[in-house]
Design a protein that fits this description.
The complex is a heterodimer of chains A (about 500) and B (about 500). In chain A, strand 7, helix 8 and strand 8 form a beta-alpha-beta unit. Helices cover about 35% and strands about 10% of the residues of chain A. Chain A has a domain of about 260 residues: Amidase signature (AS) enzymes. In chain A, helix 5 runs parallel beside helix 6. Chain A is α/β, with parallel strands linked by helices. The longest helix of chain A has 22 residues. Chain B is of the alpha+beta class and about 500 residues long. Chain B has 3 domains: about 300 residues, no CATH class; about 110 residues, no CATH class; about 60 residues, Arc Repressor Mutant, subunit A (Orthogonal Bundle), CATH 1.10.10. Chain B contains 15 helices and 16 strands. In chain B, the strands form 4 sheets. In chain B, strands 1, 2, 6, 7, 10, 11, 12, 13 and 14 form a 9-stranded mixed beta sheet that branches. A 3-stranded antiparallel beta sheet of chain B has the order 5-4-15, with no helix packed on it. Chain B is elongated. Chain B starts with 5 loop residues before the first strand and ends with a helix. Classes of the chains: A alpha/beta (about 500), B alpha+beta (about 500). The interface between A and B is large, with 43 and 31 residues. Chain A: Heterotrimer of A, B and C subunits. Chain A: It is an enzyme of class 6 (ligase). Chain A: Its EC number is 6.3.5.7. Chain A: Keywords: ATP-binding, Ligase, Nucleotide-binding, Protein biosynthesis, Transferase. Chain A: This is Glutamyl-tRNA(Gln) amidotransferase subunit A.
Chain lengths: ~500, ~500
Amino acid sequence: MTDLTNLTVAQIRDGHRAGDFSAVEVAEAFSANVAGAKALNAFIVETPDHALAAAKAADADRAAGTLKPLSGVPIGMKDLFCTNGVQTTAASHMLEGFVPRYESTVSQKLWDAGAGMLGKLNLDQFAMGSSNETSYFGNVISPWKRNDGGPNLKERAALAPGGSSGGSSAAIAARLCPAATGTDTGGSIRQPAAFTGISGIKPTYGRCSRWGIVAFASSLDQAGPMARTVQDCAILLENMAGFDPKDATSLDMAVPNWEAALSSDLAGKTVGIPREYRLKGIDPDIDAMWDAGIAMLKDAGAEVVEISLPHTKYALPAYYIIAPAEASSNLARYDGVRYGLRDLPQGAGLQDMYAATRADGFGPEVKRRIMIGTYVLSAGFYDAYYTQAQKVRTLISRDFTAAFGTCDVILAPTAPSAAFGLGEKTSDPLAMYLNDVFAVPASLAGLPAMSVPAALNREGLPLGLQIIGKAFDEQGVLNAGLAIEERAGFTARAEKWW
Amino acid sequence: MSDYRIKGETGEWEVVIGLEVHAQVTSNAKLFSGAATAFGAEPNTQVSLVDAAMPGMLPVPNRECIRQAVRTGMAIEAQINKWSRFDRKNYFYADLPQGYQISQLYHPLVGEGSLHIEADEKAGIAADKVIGIERIHVEQDAGKLMHDQHPTMSYVDLNRSGVALMEIVSKPDMRSPAEAGAYVRKLRSILRYVGSCDGNMEEGSMRADVNVSVRKPGDPFGTRTETKNVNSVRFVMQTIEYEAKRQVELLESGGTVDQETRLFNPDTGTTRTMRSKEDAHDYRYFPDPDLLPLELDDAFLAECRESLPELPDAKRARYEAAGISAYNAGVLTAEVESARWFDALLETGAEPKAAANWVTSELFGALNRLGKDIADCPVTPAQAGELLGLVADGTISGSIAKQVFEIMLETGDGAAAIVEREGLKQTSDTGAIEAVIAEVLAKNPGQLEQYRGGKEALFGFFVGQTMKAMQGKANPQVVNELLKKALG
């Protein structure tokens, strides 16, 4: 019998529909993988019962002829989504033990579509980080290993799964779940997808409701799916997106049938190659992969043109002002008064309680960003930092608007390197922030962007290509991604060592 | 009347006053959540997940609150900004679950407007005056801390958390406590006419931050202090009196006024420092990224405008044009409930001037005696119209009307029915009246002699005697005519 955990979302859905296997078998197979992969530390909480209950319902629905779009498909849920009755921590000590009595809009939509939950996935604390090392619950370890470290896989250097959706990326790459939710503020879906050889799409800002997702930076946060194929991303996204009156920034637009309209024929399409994304001194494997990607899209019928996004170099600094500014305010609610951690030293007053609770409840990276954000919003600095960063943001949006006058999608690397070793960049926050250099501009402009696995580097590690599309044109992004997927023939997977 | 001046040792000082009035928007739901807003509910029963700032919760603007603020802006003839935006005001306090208040600093919903206060000799306002209004913005209220429930802990009640407030900011245009009092009263009246705030200061639906500075007339503005959360007209006036005097004494003794936030103590009528400028919060205002800018379309604005009622100034002018005295027009229009009641009375066809006199004297007197508001007046405008109609058509006299009204208050019966039952219809029967007059003249020969001797003031005496003898039921006009003839 086939290993059910090797199946894609589409294969599980269709196989279940056809009666090839039961949903319970699928759920149990994945739950067994989850239980056997503690070494990866991908999950903060495992919920096999949730997955099993959904599977039983799916099998019953099949018998009754009332199948839903995701019947039989178990998924992982990033622990940034509030889940009713299941601990939701944002990988923080602050929310350790916090059990919401409400369900995020996105997760509710997925359950309504028939999906089940295998567990809550680890992440960088409050989604702040690019390596998963800021999690209070310990870092996730990527299933991938470099090919140069000797015969014993387990002993080779532990690599970062990317971040912040590193639990999601690791779990999918290791076949612990066929798909998972992610959130992307400045690359948190795309970079971990690239690091682990899977796909992930950040839709247009507003496509997915933010209601019930622990906020990091409100004007940037977007939920999106992560999975092994472009088709799976389309299937998941269709069941996550949609207008939500509870989110004032939600897009009031119909959700297209992305899966049905998938096409890798790019005849008549123009792909833009941004000149400014060619970084001096970048890993030659990255540029080689990029060039290969250009050839693939040409092969799919697209015309390729060079474009300019002149303000690219200001994107990262602007992002690291705007995101921390919003975060410093969004995280003010974690004060020990109503829920979550409360640290009340003997004889302490309110201010002491705030200080003790927040000192204890937030990790160093979260504190760093709260400090940066507080600073840039302070009287006397606001205009120099925040206002200026917002102007840059506008200019970056205009760059894209101008570029999309001459092309339909933009192709670029997802990240400037392959996965790095755990601990390699923790002492240098700026080096860590540079991971987002290619991802952040699309976030600032609110544009849909996805990463698809394109190649292995010399060390045998996956590299991802990024496709950025026009606002609301997830279809164009997915189609270009599919064209790469078909041609890259990326079938490599991490050899099991855990 | 001279201007309000503080007499100091170095001469006269002028007081400069600006008010920031916080008015709770009348709405069934809070500004950014669906939670209810009932006053006096059990603690923490009017709280949604959004109000408690649970993780992942998002604000969604309540259209009705915006509508009410726009209507209020229109009522003070203000600029309505079709594009406005919400900002976060960041600070930590246990009654502020989000750690920030959603307000509007940079782009308020309502821009400049104005409000008219009337001359009031008695109160010391020499002439009508226009007070400028700088802006109105909408913002969230905070919750409430209770410090008396536990020996070492404070309790938090979030019922008020997230309730919509309008902050109505005046220009520093007021120059006396009386003007400030008149401003607050007029503003409250307008808010209640519009229906955007119940104006209930005791329940905290309306409270004022009072900005006061002093200067020698003609000098530039002095340094101001801001006294927070003053919750009655009287306290606003007391705050100003106290602050102005305190500042003058401070300045004259060589000191300087600190720009600071102060608190009013209603028990002593004094203010004290709450926090100095050095301790002032850095609120780190920035646009709320959870909310899109608020854009109002013409249809929405048109609907807001059309829904506005006749406002006090217009109503007052209409009453005066109908012959009602300026004083009565002022009294009748001050409170929206009185004005509504009076308008309903006018609709019964009552003659405006007589109706105004009757309402301001008879009705208000009775309500005062009974300790009731016009809102729970035992007599309806229709019933009052019937009573006044009986006077107007001569069925009863004014003095009988008073009797009938008393019976109406007691029994709730209609005026005509009471007149019928009690036999109070006035008579114009000349024969009967002539007979009584003859009797009265016969009984008072001395007075008759004096009258005929030229003491014409005694005419009233004979009228009174005749009316008394007829138990008030004689038609006074007929009595007058017949008496003149008899005395002739």
